[in-house]
Amino acid sequence: MKLAVIIPAAGTSSRYEEAGGVRHKLDDALGDRPVLRRAIELFTKRDEVASIVVAGPSDDTAFDEFTTRHGAKLGFYGVRMCQGGAQHRWETVRNALALVENDCTHVAIHDAARPCTPIDLIDRVIEAAQTNAAVIPAIDVADTLTRIEDAPDAGDADPLDAILGGGGKANSSIRRVTEDVPRDGVVAVQTPQVFERELLLRAYAQNNLDSTDDAGLITKLGEPVHVVAGDARNIKITVPADLELARAIMKVGPPKERAAHKRF
Q1: Based on the domain organization, do 214 and 90 belong to the same domain?
Q2: Is the bond leading into 182 cis (omega within 30 degrees of zero)?
Q3: In the chain, how many domains are there?
Q4: Which residues does residue 54 pair with via DSSP β-bridges, in sequence order?
Q5: What CATH number corresponds to the domain at position 75?
Q6: CB-based burial of residue 102 (10 Å sphere; 0-12 exposed, 13-18 middle, 19+ buried)?
Q7: 3-state helix vs strand vs coil in the chain, percent to 5
Q8: 149 and 43 assigned to the same domain
Q9: How much is the pTM?
Q10: Binning pLDDT at 50, 70 and 90, where does residue 254 land?
Q11: Contact 97, 7 (CB under 8 A)
């Protein structure tokens, strides 16, 4: 196996910042290195990995800033960078896929915001990909799944908040249950996902590329996707609380505050 790794990193991190993050989630620190570098380092020492492509922001200015922040360090690992898509994840992966060398037999796609992936999980996926054309990790869903809808009549809105444009925060977080969703046969999908390169190219040659992940595009072809055991530690950082959990999983602390006389 000769493996190319694609790391989509074009997202805006809007949910992270809306939840109180002060910078892009991929720039936040896990110990002495940012989230993005931690995710990339999962693959830099693997013998089967021939190349790594990171797809950053689509906007020219944002991509230049991204390159300024990360380019030198990623270049040390031989990582190549490209601009991602403006709206959809598939645009980002497609741009990166164009840089994958023709002699690579397989492509792994891994979320940039999953820096805690255990090495044995990566081993499982790659081992299964030796004999299966499309392999993903997933974990069983333990929690009850419920479908919900907005409940505009749940609680009194704050009139002042409505005037100021918030729409009434008193009821903005209250929603109503419509039905339970059976969890039999339902799993939570993770990354890295590994595919035979030619199969992935066929998937991206389809006219309809709407999907939440790459395995969905393979399924649209009518090709089988095989599942191996994921890991609960393989979290995806979405909100600042996830970063705290990632630090606990990786046993690293937050960045040390600089001494007052060195801050300027």
Answers
A1: yes
A2: no
A3: 2
A4: 7, 81
A5: 3.90.550.10
A6: exposed
A7: 35, 20, 45
A8: no
A9: 0.86
A10: confident
A11: no
Domain shared by 194 and 175, yes or no: no
Structure tokens at 35: 């989230």
Q: By the 8 A CB rule, do 125 and 43 touch? A: no
Close Cβ partners of 179 (under 8 Å, ≥ 6 residues apart): 146, 147
Q: Are residues 81 and 137 in the same domain?
A: yes
Q: Residues 186, 191, 196, CA angle at the centre, nearest 5°?
A: 105
Three-state DSSP class for residue 218: helix
pLDDT tens for 53-108 read 999 999 999 999 999 999 999 999 999 999 999 889 999 999 999 999 999 999 99
Query: What tens digit of pLDDT does each residue of 125-158 get?
Result: 999 999 999 999 999 988 888 888 887 665 555 5
Residues 174 and 95 in one domain: no
Q: Is residue 260 part of a domain?
A: no
Residues 247 and 127 in one domain: yes
Its domain, for residue 197, covers 3-141+185-255
Query: How far lies 108's CA from each of 64, 72, 196, 252, in Å?
Result: 25, 23, 9, 27
Q: What residue has token string 């891994």?
A: 110
Residue 253, both tokens: 């602390």
4 neighbors 101 (Cβ within 8 angstroms): yes
